[in-house]
Amino acid sequence: MLILGGGLAGVACAHALGDEGVAVTLVDRNDYHQFQPLLYQVVTSQLPAEDIARPHRTIFADYPSVQVVTAPVKAVHLIERSLVLSDGRTLSGSHFVMAAGARPNFFGVPGAAEHTFPMYSVSDAERLRLHLQRLLHEVMSGATTAEGVLDVVVVGGGPTGVETAGALAELMQALHESGRLARPGRITVVDRGPALLAPFSSKAHHYAVTKLAEAGATVRLGVGVSAVHPDRVEFDDRSVIPAHTVVWGGGESGAAVAQNAGPGPGRGGRLDVRPDLTLARYPGVYAVGDVANIPSHDGDALPQLGSVAQQSGRWAAENILRERRNEPTKPFSYKDKGIMAMIGRNAAVAEVGKRHHEVQGPLAFAAWLGLHAILLSGAHSKADAFLSWAWDYFDRDHAAFIEASSAPQRIAWSDDEHDEPHISLERHDLTIRSPATPSGDNHG
Ligand SMILES: Cc1cc2nc3c(=O)[nH]c(=O)nc-3n(C[C@H](O)[C@H](O)[C@H](O)COP(=O)(O)OP(=O)(O)OC[C@H]3O[C@@H](n4cnc5c(N)ncnc54)[C@H](O)[C@@H]3O)c2cc1C
To answer: Which of 305, 310, 439 to mutate to test the pocket of ligand 1 (most atoms within 8 A of CB)?
Structure first.
């Protein structure tokens, strides 16, 4: 059994197969699983990067039948159910599960790939944190007095953009209120559409705008980004915002390796799967999580959400086990737990359960917490450590604590201190944690 990708989908699939003692090889370019919902906590120094990057070898320590290979995959051959690693090795399996996730989609906007900070991986978040930290030090030490150095444009008004904008606005406000920053950076979130948090209700749209405004951020809707330069963003209404930091939360498409795999990619560059998560014309091949267009009951594809990834990964494993027993596979049935977003401390919005019952504020935060504890449980057994960190985060008088340069409070996972992920920053090739032992290539 071969799985490409050790994110929420791949890990859930490998766990379910490993539980049955099935031999599994899981391949990922990183030696760790990354928990994307908490990336913006890394950006604003609320959490160190290693707290949301859990080594695969720890995750599978109690799964002797699961073997992890750390290497970038350069090609996939679906008919043979095999993949080619960057060092030329080929691996194959009786079944193949594509769980390679997604990548940022810049929609061809000139300069976006070169000059923005996408928010998809731990190294993306760490790179943005270090960039902001450098700018903050320059301003606080008086090394630069230029206006607008700390201004940030966040592209995309979905949950990623809104959560990041909210956290950055709070950071700026706290530094200003504590007297460390005379002029806080202006945070502007822009979206081409008419509302923030589009998949949510209109009440939530309004709530998000209000909460961001309270935190000091500006919202611009109905305007698209036409070009990004190192020091400014141009919009299609010919307006320009000077900014040295542009965060890209403007969209994503299926992982590159899936787009070149054979079947023409469907909507969003993702692989269209049948209701049982298999790929038509490729026996024994499944696609799950963000890399797949998974049909829902109403015919649309399910959204790219952690719970969809986790549940579909597990379901693919169950269908593989059925195939091994010569039983028919079953169509994927998604248990919708709702959608939620944290706009800042004390400002969360959630639509809970299948009926998307609307809640806001502390209740929404509690829902957010519950869902994230379930998602994290795939990689961490200590959900209570996460819950106590998160309650503290929610409750804390943040003005005294937030500082981009300080050591953030850790989640008390009580891991073995040697068992840490090897995170390196691709674009700047800056290693932030030296590996204790040699490992495979982290980034392809
Ligand atoms: C900023 C952000 C915030 C989010 N917040 C939420 C939230 O609050 N709630 C929620 O439900 N969902 C949230 N999501 C969505 C959720 O995180 C994803 O739906 C989920 O993580 C997808 O899991 P996956 O396993 O399909 O893909 P991923 O987690 O992306 O895993 C894919 C894996 O494949 C590996 N891989 C890819 N290509 C190769 C290759 N060529 N060679 C080797 N390895 C490869 C990658 O290294 C990666 O480990 C958020 C997403 C982002 C980006």
So the answer is: 305
Residue 315 lies in a domain: yes
Give me the pLDDT at residue 406, please. Answer: 54
- Quick one: pLDDT at residue 405? 46
**Residue 310 domain boundaries:** 2-29+71-104+252-324
Q: Is residue 394 part of a domain?
A: no
Distance 441 CA to ligand 1 centre (A): 19
Q: Is the C-beta atom of 307 inside 6 A of ligand 1?
A: yes
User: Is residue 35 in some structural domain?
Assistant: no
pTM: 0.90
The reply to whether 311 falls in a domain is yes
Q: Ligand 1 within 6 A of 408 CB?
A: no
**Mean pLDDT on 436-440:** 30
pLDDT at residue 99 is higher than 50: yes
User: In the chain, how many domains are there?
Assistant: 1
Residue 433 CB partners (closer than 8 Å, separation 6+)? 50, 420, 421, 422, 423
What is the CATH classification number for the domain harbouring 93?
A: 3.50.50.60
Torsion of CA 100, 444, 440, 1, to 10 degrees: 30
CA separation for the pair 427, 443 (Å, rounded): 10
| Ligand 1 contact, 106 CB (< 6 A) | no
pLDDT tens figures, 67-85: 999 999 999 999 999 999 9
CA of 101 from ligand 1 middle (Å) equals 5
Q: Is the CB of 126 under 6 A from ligand 1?
A: no
Residue in 4, 25, 36, 271 to alter for ligand 1 test, most ligand atoms within 8 A of Cβ: 36
How far, in Å, is the centroid of ligand 1 from the Cα of 372? 14
